[in-house]
Design brief:
Aldehyde Dehydrogenase, Chain A, domain 2; Aldehyde Dehydrogenase, Chain A, domain 1; 21 strands; 7-stranded mixed beta sheet; 6-stranded mixed beta sheet; 15 helices; binds nicotinamide-adenine-dinucleotide; alpha/beta
């Protein structure tokens, strides 16, 4: 027990159940698991631990709603109204949502509030997109018209991680529902609290019963059962690359549609001609915001040698001033990592880093926080490309900085990991920025910018960072079948077989 505590949110439930066919229910087999407060690591509630039996019930409810219910046939304008009401409710409950999210995940409250606003925005975006949706028509004059008939697919299985959980759930829920599917959501077991708000939001917004179902539980049980369920043709997964591999293999026998948003070790490349102040501010935010638990974190910074000494000195000094604090305090910039297991993993990498590179800031617990999952923003310099802290995703407030001498070397270093999610490039040379952007192996590139994403753009990674893209109409492509309908306008013009004398 420590002497600092986050205030416990009012009216916290003592247990969290599943939500199946419009009812809150316990696990069929009665199991539950503990959920920990990341500041104290004490269990503060229990959540139902779903197994195959619960997933079977949820999929049956979702299938029934899909086959018989009104949602898939509801006109886009009406579905759009429901989605806008969901966005309104998320916005109006944003403070409560952020309070629960911050308490459950250890995210700083100001950042949790930002994520709640983004979750509402995701619903608004897809509400607008489905009424503006146009599909292709192709004409062959006098002969044929071909058109695309877009249809919802059925029950989508949505499996999500614990970093910014509510926002990442909204990212999948909004397009899946907008397209007219039913869903079964399996949220991350470290952070089930904010997901428990969805049922009330959907009920109040008028989403028909059975369209949204939620099964809590461990990945290897509830998640696994969802992936293997024969009546779930689509799985959208966000999480670690190694989990993605397991899911890929488990979904293969049924040839399911898969969307995979996986891990990253994204480079931020700073050339000598960059606006140094802006580059330092952005690369500090890029790896220390959201506690460093961010898939697109710029966790490897590559710096041109002529500015390297100045960069690392200024960077380390600023990193040391980043404010670690209790998640609920408005001034906190880095809160508590989500769970003691994850904390141990990050601390282990910090010890590895001390053997592999030069420690410039942080390197363990911050002063004043002897317990709980607090990690000081940690900066390693002179990190060799073969170092584990250069190659492996740490997913915490830890950055590896490496010098380079030429653009070619910078590119080689940037591409020298198994991941390929994001890249950030800092230079004022127009040609170089575009040439580098086109050569770097990353699904998303930001030039002279932090991670600011227009919701219309594709989101996704290459190499071990993912499969497929979500974002904008690409999400609707994933959650719909695009049936091609061909209409003959003229003569039937196939050769006639079997007509010989
Ligand atoms: P994780 O892979 O451990 O778990 C993610 C989800 O998968 C959880 O709900 C978990 O219960 C479930 N799961 C685990 N094993 C499963 C199995 N065998 N079958 C089915 N489901 C299973 O990931 P995490 O630790 O929760 O999240 C952190 C990871 O997510 C990091 O690697 C991060 O980079 C990645 N991430 C990627 C993106 C992106 O968009 N690319 C976004 C956020 C996080």
């Amino acid at each position: 027990m420590n002497d600092y505590q986050s205030p416990v949110p009012a009216d916290l439930p003592e247990r969290i159940q599943h939500y199946i066919d419009g009812e809150h229910v316990d696990s069929a087999e009665g199991g539950s698991f503990e959920v920990l407060n990341p500041v104290t690591n004490e269990a503060y509630l229990r959540a139902a631990a779903g197994t195959k039996a619960d997933v079977d019930r949820a999929v049956a409810a979702a299938t029934h709603a899909f086959e018989t219910g009104p949602w898939r046939e509801t006109l886009p304008r009406e579905r759009s109204r429901v989605l806008h009401r969901i966005a309104d409710l998320v916005e109006s409950r944003g403070e409560r949502l952020a309070e629960l999210e911050s308490f459950d995940s250890g995210l700083p409250i100001t950042q949790a509030l930002g994520q709640a606003r983004r979750a509402a925005e995701n619903f608004r975006f897809f509400a607008d997109l489905i009424v503006a949706q146009a599909d292709d028509v192709y004409k062959v004059p006098g002969r044929q018209i071909n058109y695309v008939s877009r249809k919802p697919i059925g029950v989508a299985g949505l499996i999500t991680p614990w970093n910014t959980p509510f926002m990442l759930e909204s990212w999948k829920l909004a397009p899946a529902l907008a397209a007219g599917n039913s869903v079964v959501l399996k949220p991350a077991e470290f952070t089930p609290l904010s997901a428990s708000l969805w049922s009330g939001i959907f009920e109040d917004a008028g989403l028909p019963r059975g369209v949204f179902n939620l099964v809590n539980g461990l990945g290897e049980q509830a998640g696994d059962a969802l992936v293997k369920h024969p009546d779930v043709p689509l799985i959208s997964f966000t999480g670690e690359s190694s989990t993605g591999q397991t899911i890929f293999a488990n979904a293969a026998p049924a040839l399911k549609g898969l969307s995979m948003e996986l891990g990253g070790k994204s480079p931020a490349v700073v050339f000598a001609d960059a606006d140094l102040e802006a580059a330092i501010n952005a690369t500090i935010f890029g790896v220390f915001s959201l506690n460093g638990e961010r898939c697109t974190a710029g966790s490897r910074i590559l710096v041109e040698r002529s500015i390297y000494a100045e960069f690392i000195e200024r960077y380390a000094a600023q990193a040391a001033r980043v404010k670690v604090g209790l998640p609920h305090e408005p001034g906190t910039e880095v809160g508590a990592l989500v769970h003691p297991e994850h904390f141990e993993k990050v601390m282990h990498y910090i010890e590895i880093g001390k053997q592999e590179a030069r420690l410039l800031a942080g390197g363990g617990r911050p002063e004043g926080f002897p317990t709980g999952n607090f990690v000081a923003p940690t900066v390693f310099a002179d990190v060799a490309p073969e170092a584990r802290i250069f190659q492996e995703e740490i997913f915490g407030p830890v950055v590896a900085i490496t010098p380079f001498d030429s653009e070619a070397e910078a590119l080689e270093l940037a591409n020298n990991t198994k991941y390929g999610l994001a890249a950030y490039i800092w230079t004022n040379d127009l040609k170089r920025s575009h040439n580098f952007a086109q050569s770097v192996q990353a699904g998303m590139v930001w030039l002279n910018s932090n991670n600011v994403r227009d919701l219309r753009t594709p989101f996704g990674g290459v190499k071990a960072s993912g499969l497929g893209h979500e974002g904008g109409y690409r999400s609707l492509d994933f959650y719909t079948d695009q049936q091609a309908v061909h209409i003959n306008l003229g003569e039937v013009h196939n050769p006639v077989f079997g007509n010989a004398d």
